[in-house]
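Researcher: Here's the sequence for the chain we discussed earlier.
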Amino acid sequence: MFRIFFYILIIAGVSYGLSLIEGDITIQWAGGEIQPSLRAVLLAFLGVFLVLMIVWTLFRMVLSTPEAFSRYLSVKKKKKGIEALSSGLIALGAGDDIMAQRHAMQAKKTLPNDPMTLMLRAQAAELKGDILQATKLYESMLAASDTELFGLRGLYLLALQQNEIEAAAQYAARAVQRRPDLSWAVLGLFDLQCKKHAWRAALETLKIASTKRHVNNKTAKRQRAVLLTALAQELEDSDMDEALKLATEASRLAPALIPASVVAGRIYASKGQMSPALKVLRKCWKLAPHPDLAVVSAFARPGDSVRDRLERIKSLARLTPGHKEAALAVATAAIEAQDWASAREALGPLTRGRPTQRVCTLMARIEAADDGDIGSVQEWLARGIHAMPDPQWVADGVVADEWAPLSPISQKLDGFEWKVPPEDDIISEETHTLKKLLAGLVTAEGLTAQRALEVSAKAEDDQSDSSDMVLVPVVKVTKTDASSNTHLAEKKDEKTSDDSLANVKEDAEVSDVGTVAVASDINQKTDIESEPEVVDAEEVSSEADKSELTEKEANNEVTVISASDGKQTEDKETAAAKQAVEQDVLDEPAKPKPKRRRRKRTKIFVAPPAPDDPGTEEIDDLETVDRVRPVRF
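Model: Thanks. This is the structure I predict for it:
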């Protein structure tokens, strides 16, 4: 709007200016003259100027058309390349190697010289698994300064994937030399130097990391102490003075680092310098009591008697009163000195409750050497099998006897910790029960192991004595599926009978007297359309038995009775248990019986009686047992 108003003002001003111009202009030439007005001359001049401007503009447009067309194509191509790069990066993030490769090829055609194209192609090849092509592309980035670090990082990661530690260390070192402020380069180089046990080079890299704030001061001090300790352990045999210097510095940086104090104390003791050795050891003992510190402290002065070592350990233990390691150290030294009273006094508080394995072992040594009580020794050794484990050096779930600067699994620096390992050998109560079930000691319905053992022992005694009665399992079977046929064969051996009955469906229920009952729901009985399969049928010996069993078949119950060779008499325990089960069943509220569909008679299979079996004459007992319904405990 403002522009239109501005143009109107200009036109109005020009028109007004032309209106003020008056006068004529005389133009003469050889053939004559003309006298146009000054206003007409100005208008003609403006018209010619406008025509010339239009012609020049058209001329320039014609001349610049190819360049403009080329520029248009270039812009369009660049736009396609940028879209390909964007889509390729999205495909890389999604893990779609096929689309990433496709967009990388499109970017190569449209933007062949763009650094982003090289990056997309390299990462797409790496995602696809073409390590050779990815390596070539990363190496081509090293020529340009803007892509050198990207190429070094790509080559570093590829070398780590292929477990080429030396090559990865070289790429990381080159990146650190170029840019020390890159955390991945500095920390990666530090880890690789630790894996190669290049402790001195790792110390220099750690210094750079601490200067550039890649690690905090506390972590840097701890890692430096660990590196110095590892280097001191290597130099302890070859260069004792240098090892002592390194161990002392490590102990100063990390007073609670046990291996550093152990190495320093051991070297001081070998040099005959007992006082500085005890100073270093006691300083660490106050922060982290450890058996190695106690051992080095005990032998800080060679040639001392066992009594002197015991007194030195007692003075060391007084620095941490009540600590378990202090008591164990005193007990060990007292056993070496054959001071059984002091050893028992030291271990007394530790034997209460659940002692550890070391406590049980030391108590076994005391009992063997002091009293010579083999029973007590065996008792303590047996307790030690299931005792709580003692603290050990643990790193990534691996238990080691000695400390190491690196974890054996992850190769992480300072990975070992002095702690109690997981109690893998302690079995829960559920696991004990499961083992008993698998061994057949208890039944699934809650029969205790002790009761099962008693029943089994009694069955074996009854089987050996023909005058006693074998416990008779009563089985009530209702088949809910025509395909699930169960072959039941009663044998005289109760153990074999229990094994065969264990294969019955989950409906089987075991009573305390060895009675197994399997009963399905009454509604399931009405849905049965097929008759159970008859397997190994045998004739019933007497007509009375047949009529009795036929009457029970009408109630869809199958009773299998195995009788002994002797008289069918029950002892007092069996009768009492049976009466208790019967009483529990009879106390249950009676359930209304729904109408049942009539079905065909089911044949009954009874194990053949012994030759001298008098038969089932005691009908009252049979009816009593048959009335007992299955009870789930």
